Amino acid sequence: MRLYKLFVLIVMSVFPTMSYALTQSELNAKICQYVPTVAQTNAYSNGVVYDGRLLLSGNSKNVIRVPKDGQALSFLSNEGEFQCEYPTDPKQDCLVDRTITYPGFPFNLPELSDRGNDYECSKSACSISAGYYKDLKIAKNQAVLTLGSGVYYVNELNFDAVGARLEVEGPVEIHFNKIFFKENNIKLNMNNTPNNLLLLGHGEDSFVRLDDVNNVIVNGFIYISDEATNQGASPLKVTRILLPAE
Question: Rounded to two decimals, what is the model's pTM?
């Protein structure tokens, strides 16, 4: 009997139960770690910006909201026009400063392995729980996919429908390899504060793709691994984007 009990304890220690729980204080700490300011490149070497072109695809409605007048963003260059909204100037070229750096930043996040099952939201309203997913897709126009609080690991996140929405119930952290915005009027996290959503891109091929789409709102924080090359994607290397519809 004692040997049997010992065997059970060993099995439990080798195969622990995976926890996807996430508190708001834990998420707040990670946001401070991965997103030091409103937007910045992820290409630093020895404390110097060596790459990072600030350019948003789509039309003039796609902008970054900057909270302070005169605040510069840490990028190598600005290659777009009228991409930033400042408090007293709603349509202005983004100010960039390659000398702005952050101690210990950026971070390397290795590519995620394929785990879990595919999930497609093809109804008006869908909901899922935290965990591993291979591919997540919103496939119905105006559909709302609600994520329960916790940590998610996703190979690809696809917004394939016009007006698709992703909402969160409490703090949510999404680890991903790729995100595709394929239609217009897509909105993320409209019912909570930005501090409820953190998206972390993994691997050298990680990207957020917004080719030829408009009126997208990401009300949250995004970080992409510093080894990402943005191959096959628009040249977007920002860690927080807010693309307002109006």
Answer: 0.82
